[in-house]
Design brief:
There is one protein chain. This protein is an alpha/beta fold. The chain contains seven helices and nine strands; from the N terminus they run H-E-E-E-E-H-E-E-H-E-H-E-H-E-H-H. The longest helix has 14 residues. It is globular.
């Protein structure tokens, strides 16, 4: 259970460490962490030093908060996130979202590396997440609800804020970057999905699949924090290309497309 008391304690600790009140929250997924290194006058805070935070064990996830300026905007960035496959409960994964909201963040930008289900997509594409399918069978809101944080039954209709999605489209257009649109399917992992599972997800309407994001979006809807999500298609999902999948491929594609990704996210952040 996530409590207001714990969130307040984490936020109080961070206020003493941060150089300013952040405006925009940013969560960087697999292979996308280098954007945090572009923040100016940055302060780095390991997750393990923050009260009630858990530490990140996923490969290439630095596991720290980075606070600094991104093209003049005050950004609080999660350089790496937590995942269910690391053994963390959904509320532990979602907890930082409540802390960012408590610190004054008014918009949350989520990124991830995803497998492409939509056969019209190509490796290296960016996809604006328009909605999600939670296939983990879990929720960060399970258990007693702290009404001080949010309603017992939050509405998910506009979990991905339409106004922020429009700004993402405009940012991509101004950058000359093609931004696909689609539905994100969240699974637990760490194994990649089977071809049969991918066929099922496609039948359900999913365009991309990954092992993160859905819990953070549920938490943001719960505490009233507007969200925009962008997925990088770092591989085609199982059975689409009929070739083996590997985590190394994910990081290689993320690195090769990193410059365009950082340009897109920076342009978006400036608009928020």
């Amino acid at each position: 259970m996530i409590s207001k008391q714990n969130v307040q304690q984490s936020a109080a600790y961070l206020r003493e460490m941060l150089p300013f009140k952040p405006e925009i929250g940013l969560v960087l997924g697999s292979g996308l962490g280098p954007l945090a290194d572009e923040l100016e006058d940055a302060v780095h805070i390991p997750y393990g030093s923050i009260p009630h935070f858990r530490t990140s064990t996923a490969p290439d996830h630095a596991g720290r908060l980075v606070c600094g300026a991104l093209d003049g905007r005050r950004v609080l960035c999660m350089q790496g996130r937590l995942h269910g496959y690391e053994g963390y409960a959904p509320d532990e994964i979602a907890y930082p979202v409540y802390v960012m909201q408590r610190l004054g963040v008014r918009a949350l930008v989520l990124t991830n590396a995803s497998g492409g289900i939509n056969t019209s997509f190509s490796v290296g594409d960016f996809m604006l997440i328009e909605d999600q399918i939670n296939m983990t069978g879990k929720s960060p809101l399970t258990g007693l609800n702290d009404d001080a944080l949010g309603a017992r039954f939050p509405d998910m209709t506009f979990a991905y804020a339409p106004a922020l999605r429009q700004q993402a489209c405009e940012a991509a257009q101004s950058c000359g970057i093609v931004l696909r649109r689609g539905i994100y399917c969240g699974v637990n992992g760490p194994q990649f999905e089977t071809p049969a599972e991918i066929r099922m997800f496609r039948a359900l309407g999913a365009d991309a699949v990954g092992m993160s994001t859905v819990f953070e979006v549920i938490a943001a809807a719960h505490c009233g924090l507007p969200v925009v999500g962008i997925a990088m298609i770092t591989n085609m999902a199982a059975g689409v290309m009929m070739q083996p999948l590997s985590g190394a491929e994910v990081n290689e594609i993320a690195l090769s497309r990193g410059t365009d990704f950082r340009r897109l996210i920076t342009t978006l952040v400036v608009r928020l």
